[in-house]
Amino acid sequence: MARVESANADLQAEDGAPGASPEALSRGEAQLRWKLTLRLVAPITLLIILNSLDRVNVSFAALRMNQELGLSPQAYGFGVSIFFLGYILLQFPHAMSQRRLGARRWIFLTAFAWGVVAASLAFIRDARAFYALRFLLGATEGGLAPGMLYYLSQWTPRRLRGFAAAGTMLAVPISVVLGGPLSGWLMAMHDNPAGLAGWRWMFLIEGAAPIVLAFVSLVIFKERLEDAGWLSAAEKRSLRAELDREAAELEHRHAVRLADTLRQPGLWGSIVLWFCLMSGAYGLLFWLPMVIKQMSSVSDAHASALSALPWVGIGAGMMLNAWHSDRTQERTWHFAVPAGIAALFLAAAATVPAGWPALVCILVGATAMGSAQGVFWAIPTSFLGGAAAAAGVTVINIMGNSAGVVTPPLFGWLRQATGSFQPPIYAMAALMLVAAVTAVPLGRWAKARL
């Protein structure tokens, strides 16, 4: 609370009100939060929306692409997972490039490169080309999410970080909620100007978008907080003072070398949580349209649109739970309880009859999963500090996203071996339960470090 009052006092001092009332302080805090949301969180979220869409639109294309290219469920699962091999291998090179090139140039080059690769998927002719471009897409996209989280942490103090991080994480559900109907519509355009198959036209258009945004990013993003013309001088001073104070506290209390960071139990606990969450998210991302198609006789466009519904719940859960977590400054139970609820309803989805009962259970389970995701990054960034903060976030992201290498091919193998999606859904439920149980001792350890 002292940090909040100290930061806002500087804002009020600019208006000549050193003894500002609590109401005035609240207005100053609200104005600052709004500026950060509009000028920082929103552009980052848009960038990650396009990033996520180019990652997951393969699940919509699969409704037609698999048949045209002759891909079995297991082969499709391998093509999905090889993305994450490139994604993981290029994490640290991306992090080093971001530090060396600066945020603006790094964002431009990353967005431009992944857009070119994503658009190139429109011209694949066989499985080998599919695998090669999925690997390259992972390599070019690899560092964006952790890089953006690190960039965000250099602008937002700890007390605002839960909401800010959830805002960027909202990009994934938005990309599916909007991307499902959009991809379905593009895939239905058989008379498109390029004369391509619908799924190829979708890849081409959705890959072109980040190329355009790459050039826009050069104008939107600034290297340093002090370069932001949309912040007042008082806001810059208060934010810089608070960020420097938090950095100094972490430098003083905790070791900052990467080797020391890797020995922290909290880092490995965070990896377990993120791995479990990502396993569940990737299960929904890459298989849900086909699950819905199997459960019903709807068209491809309708299957794509229906697959967006659980992501509406994920987005709502992210924002509401993150808002309440920031308000109470409590993280552990805001993660553990939703993760446990997700485990319960995902298990129920595999048990109840196919159709609407199962879809409702998936919707509730997905909402709870999103609630847990919304507060996750506020946990590790509370104890990772100093020079190793970026490396720590990258390690968590690499290890957590290794779920993408394991989960899609495993789900594909289970689906092909059993002819059912029940075993993969039970596996997702079990992982959510592991996350819920792990979060409790991790939260206690992190709290003891503050």
Topology of this protein?
Layout (H helix, E strand, L loop, with lengths): L1 H12 L8 H48 L3 H17 L1 H11 L1 H18 L6 H15 L2 H10 L4 H12 L1 H17 L10 H23 L12 H21 L4 H5 L2 H31 L4 H7 L2 H20 L3 H20 L4 H21 L12 H13 L1 H16 L3 H28 L1
Helix pairs in contact: 1-2, 1-11, 2-3, 2-5, 2-7, 2-8, 2-9, 2-10, 2-13, 3-6, 3-18, 3-19, 4-5, 5-6, 5-10, 7-18, 8-15, 8-17, 9-10, 9-14, 9-15, 13-14, 13-17, 13-18, 13-19, 13-20, 15-17, 16-17, 16-20
How would you portray this structure in words?
The protein has helices at residues 2-13, 22-69, 73-89, 91-101, 103-120, 127-141, 144-153, 158-169, 171-187, 198-220, 233-253, 258-262, 265-295, 300-306, 309-328, 332-351, 356-376, 389-401, 403-418, 422-449. By secondary structure, the protein is an all-alpha fold. It has a single domain (38-224, 255-449), classed as MFS general substrate transporter like domains (Growth Hormone, Chain: A, Up-down Bundle), CATH 1.20.1250. The chain is globular. The model is unreliable at 1-20 (pLDDT under 50). Keywords: Membrane, Transmembrane, Transmembrane helix, Transport. This is MFS transporter.
